[in-house]
Amino acid sequence: ELGAELAVYRNDAITLDEIKKLKPKKIVISPGPGEPKDAGISKDVIKIFGNIIPTLGVCLGHQCIGEVFGGKIVGAKTLMHGKTSLIHHDGKGIFKGIKNPFEATRYHSLIVEKKTCPKALEITAETKDKEIMGFVHKSYPIYGVQFHPESILTLDGKKLLKNFLDL
User: Fold this and answer.
1) Closest among 101, 155, 103, 112 to 135, alpha carbons compared
2) Is residue 117 a contact partner of residue 166, using CB atoms and an 8 Å limit?
């Protein structure tokens, strides 16, 4: 729909060598279920490829990025399964040209704890309650969003994904 050619693999059904052979132009670490320890090779993909291949982590993928760089994953203030929130953002990178705030769908009970957010990650989006909803690595092309841009209820979700593809 956005003009990208996709290859989809379960995080426990592909190896790092197989990914390398695919020569991806972009990588998306997708949603769960579970927590980063349950995410197969997702964290290793971020460690090995994130510094050279633009990578987007969505929900569990976002949490994996946070954990890889030293953040702590904790319970969210409120369980957010199929609920929408207004997301406030910096208007840069993947958020360029997106209404501020915009409505996004959330399906999670865990978040990257703000006080442990790694210094290598710059927070780019939050809820009104200051829960982290997006970040970018300060040196690598690594982006994370806690909400679901692919959800039909996420207004401007396709624009955010297109922005990522255009990096």
Assistant:
1) 112
2) no
Residue 10 buriedness (CB in 10 A; 0-12 / 13-18 / 19+) = exposed
Domain-by-domain residue ranges, the chain?
16-165
The yes/no answer on whether domain 16-165 falls in CATH 3.20.20.140 is: no
Q: Which residues contact 123 (CB under 8 A, 6 or more apart)?
A: 114, 117, 132, 134, 135
- pTM reported for the whole predicted model: 0.96
Q: What stretch of H or E contains 87?
A: strand 73-89
The three-class DSSP label of residue 139 is coil
pLDDT digits (tens, 9 = 90+) for 84-105: 999 999 999 999 999 999 999 9
Q: What is the pLDDT of residues 112-133, one digit of tens each?
A: 999 999 999 999 999 999 999 9
Query: Which sequence positions are flagged as catalytic?
Result: 59, 148, 150
Token digits for 120? Answer: 């290598």
**Cα–Cα distance, 43 to 37 (Å, whole number):** 9
